[in-house]
């Protein structure tokens, strides 16, 4: 499985213990199998290179859990975001990215302002992009770094324009549905 991770350094040996525990799939190293999406995820940082690391993951002998955009997926994300212990025993978790982490929604979905059912409705809005999260050292041992592609400032700017256009569409859909939910 080819995987991609955008950042500002060459990451040959990722650390699954680094990062937020309250992310969608809990603590781990987040990647995508979608090269185009990894490029769109890239950002600029002053005096640093923007790098898309490319990896190959051998999934044989790993416990891989795959989520669909459904109630089980939502419950897992909601639990992680609210600090519940991650009870899923998996080396690798594959599933849709919750769009509110890509597009700015001011934390409305998991703030407690909405019911879980209303939150799930809002998380179903917009396009579906897959994320792959390495959750264990075993998974990291089966990950092979292939290369790091450096993106130019112009390339990153072009990809960010695509994200901004998509974000505008998403936020309109999100606002309309949020209004329906809060008026009802």
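Sequence proposed for the structure above (184 residues):
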């Amino acid at each position: 499985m080819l995987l991609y991770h955008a950042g500002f350094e060459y990451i040959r040996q990722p650390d699954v213990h680094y990062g937020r525990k309250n992310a969608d799939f809990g603590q781990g190293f987040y990647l995508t199998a979608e090269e185009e999406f990894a490029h769109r995820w890239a950002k600029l940082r002053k005096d640093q290179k923007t790098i898309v690391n490319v990896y190959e993951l051998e999934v044989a002998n790993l416990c891989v859990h795959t989520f669909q955009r459904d109630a089980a997926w939502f419950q897992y994300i909601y639990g992680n975001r609210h600090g519940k212990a991650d009870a899923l025993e998996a080396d690798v978790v594959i599933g849709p990215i919750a769009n509110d982490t890509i597009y700015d929604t001011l934390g409305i979905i998991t703030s407690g302002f909405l019911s879980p059912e209303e939150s799930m409705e809002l998380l179903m809005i917009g396009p579906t992009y897959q994320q792959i999260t390495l959750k264990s050292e075993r998974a990291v041992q089966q990950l092979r770094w292939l290369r790091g592609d450096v993106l130019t400032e112009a390339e990153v700017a072009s990809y960010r324009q695509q994200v901004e256009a998509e974000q505008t569409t998403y936020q309109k859909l999100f606002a309309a549905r949020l209004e329906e939910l809060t008026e009802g």
